[in-house]
Structures are given as C-alpha cells and as structure tokens.
Amino acid sequence: MNTKQYTRVGVLGVASIATRSVIPAIISLPNQYKLAGIASRDSSKATTSARDFGCKAYENYESLLVDPDIDAVYIPLPNSLHYPFVIMALEQGKHVLVEKSLGCSLIEVQQMVELASARNLVLLENFQFRFHSQLATILKLTNDGVIGNLRSVRVAFGFPPFADADNIRYKPELGGGALLDAGAYAMKIAPYFLGKDLSVAHASMAFDSARNVDIWGGGMLQQSGGALFGHFSYGFDNYYQCSLELWGSLGKLTTNRIFTAPSNLEPELLVETSHGAERKVLPTDDHFKNILNYFYKLINGDASTALEYEGNIQQATLIDQFKNVVTTSSIS
Question: Would you say residue 235 lies in a domain?
Fold first, then answer.
C-alpha cells in the first residue's frame, strides 16, 4: 500500500492521448499525483515534453522504470510494446495504467496479471468510458426497468481512415488493427449489461491485405447460461459511430457518444417507449480524471485490484475467442 500523500507517476512515450488528455488530467489532481517524469526513445521529444509539463526527462523507457522515485507508470505505447514494458514496470514494483488493448494475446495478459497479483500491484487497462457518469445513468435506467426487461444490446464504434498513412494502427508489427483498437470497446462494455458469463458466438473481419491488418469487423456475444446477446460493429474505415442501443421489452435506449464523450460535452440519451420519446441531456463529466481517481484508490487499497485482474482476463479471453472463430475476408 502506498503511504505517500501523492503518487509519483512516470509516462512512457509522448503519444497524443498522453499529451492531450492523460498528462493534463494527472497535473490537475495534485493531491493524488505528481507528474515525475516523461520518457521517450527520442530524447529531444522527452526533453520538450518534460519542459512543457514541468517534470524530469528520461532518455529511454528503461531509465524511467528503474528509477526508485517513480511509484506508478502510465503506458500509452503501441500495443505490441505493452507486454515487455508492463512486465518490466511490475518487476520494478510500479503500479501500471496502460492503454487498451492491454496485450496482443491472452497469454500475454495472463502473464501480466499473474505478475501483478504476485507483487500486489495495480494493473489497470485505460478504458475511461467505464468512469463517465453517463454509463452509471444508463445502468440505473436499465435496472429501474425504464425499457422493461432487456432483450439485446447493440454497439457500434468506428471512424474514418486515419489521415496519416504511417499511423501505428496500420502496422501489424506494432499490434495494429481495428479489433484491438476499436473492437475491444464492445468486449469491455458488454458485461455491464449482459453479465460476465459471455462467449463469442460469431465473428467477422475485413482484412486489408496491403497493410496486413484487420480494418473493420463485428460479431455477436452470447450469454453462456442465458438468452441475452449483443451485436457489435467496429472499424477504422467507417462513417463515425460511437453508439450504444439497449432494446427492451417495453422500450429502447440509445446514445451516440458512449465511449468518447469529451469533458465539455453534455451526452444525450434517447428513451423510446409506447408513451413516446424522451431525450435526456446529461451533465458533462471528465472520464480521464475519473479513471485517475480510481487508479489512485486501487493503489491505496480503497478499491479491488482482484476485480481488475478478473476483468483483464475476461477482456483478453473474449478477444482471443473472437480471433479463434472469426471469418475473414480480404480487401485490397
């Protein structure tokens, strides 16, 4: 258990999500965190970012990870680099917040979780949407029976092609592809509505043979011991969608920014029943700050690391099942 007033955080890499969202959120929580350092394989980038954010620059990832003055690390590196640097961080006694997807395979995730558990360290996958208040509101409306008994769930998360043709998401050697980048969100949200006992009943994937990565796809998750199911679609060669639809016996609830609502956006829910349609405007919220507050609670023993270990394994298991049952079509 960390007994310090704040947790000293080091950041591996200067990815856009780090510099644009997570690092500013860390700095905004001075009672919980101190931004202690930023590392990059490009020392000039580390120096520039460290100067901008008022912390120490490290010339490589390893030098930050072995520094005893770092309590926890945030890892926004490409997917294929998560495993080696998460393992190194855990071996050095650091708590870890890591971008999704946690690993490129179920075996990788199992090994990371086993080490975190053995060392009594936090291993948190950075799905911020879990901590946006709109999800809690949707769960309450569903549990209160506003749309009756739930019948099915539909999720769509995808966006247009990246302007940068050299984007890491197009590189198979870096763990690229749409499943680990966008499809993973559907796996993560499904248990909130369908329960934990899930399996992949169908999977379809379009594979870009030129880039050697999957580009879009979808499938169905099925309760192993029940009748509920969820359809999902994802991709990054798509018209933008970020939607959740819950269809019940008495109505339907939909929202269109379930995963990516920025802190200045008031999310909107549409609830449709036989009595008519009601549009609910929800308050703004900052899910980056919220997940960091949760990370701090985990570090200090005020939330369950065991539940996160379980969730990490469940997520990786569903992605592994998807890969094993997928029907692939190549596109040029």
Answer: yes
Same domain, 49 and 190: no
CA gap 266, 285 in Å, rounded: 8
Helices (H), 195-253: none
Instruction: Indicate the residue among 81, 98, 126 that finishes a domain.
Output: 126
Residue 70 structural domain: 7-126
Contact 10, 97 (CB under 8 A): no
Q: Is 105 in the same domain as 140? A: no
pLDDT per residue as tens, the chain (332 positions): 445 589 999 999 999 999 999 999 999 999 999 999 999 999 999 999 999 999 999 999 999 999 999 999 999 999 999 999 999 999 999 999 999 999 999 999 999 999 999 999 999 999 999 999 999 999 999 999 999 999 999 999 999 999 998 999 999 999 999 999 999 999 999 999 999 999 999 999 999 999 999 999 999 999 999 999 999 999 999 999 999 999 999 999 999 999 999 999 999 999 999 999 999 999 999 999 999 999 999 999 999 999 999 999 999 999 999 999 998 887 76
What string of DSSP letters covers 235-266?
Answer: ESSSS-EEEEEEEESSEEEEES-TTT--TT--
Active-site residue numbers? 100
Query: Is residue 120 located within the same domain as residue 137?
Result: no
Report how far residue 315's alpha carbon sits from residue 296's, in angstroms, rounded to the nearest whole number.
22
Q: Could you tell me if 271 and 278 are in contact, meaning their C-beta atoms sit under 8 angstroms apart?
A: yes
Same domain, 100 and 20: yes
Considering the domain boundaries, does residue 299 fall inside one?
Answer: no
Handedness of CA 95, 305, 15, 19 (dihedral sign): negative
In the structure encoding, which two tokens stand for residue 179, read together?
């499943």
The whole-angstrom separation of Cα 308 and Cα 148 is 30
Domain finish residue from 107, 126, 145: 126
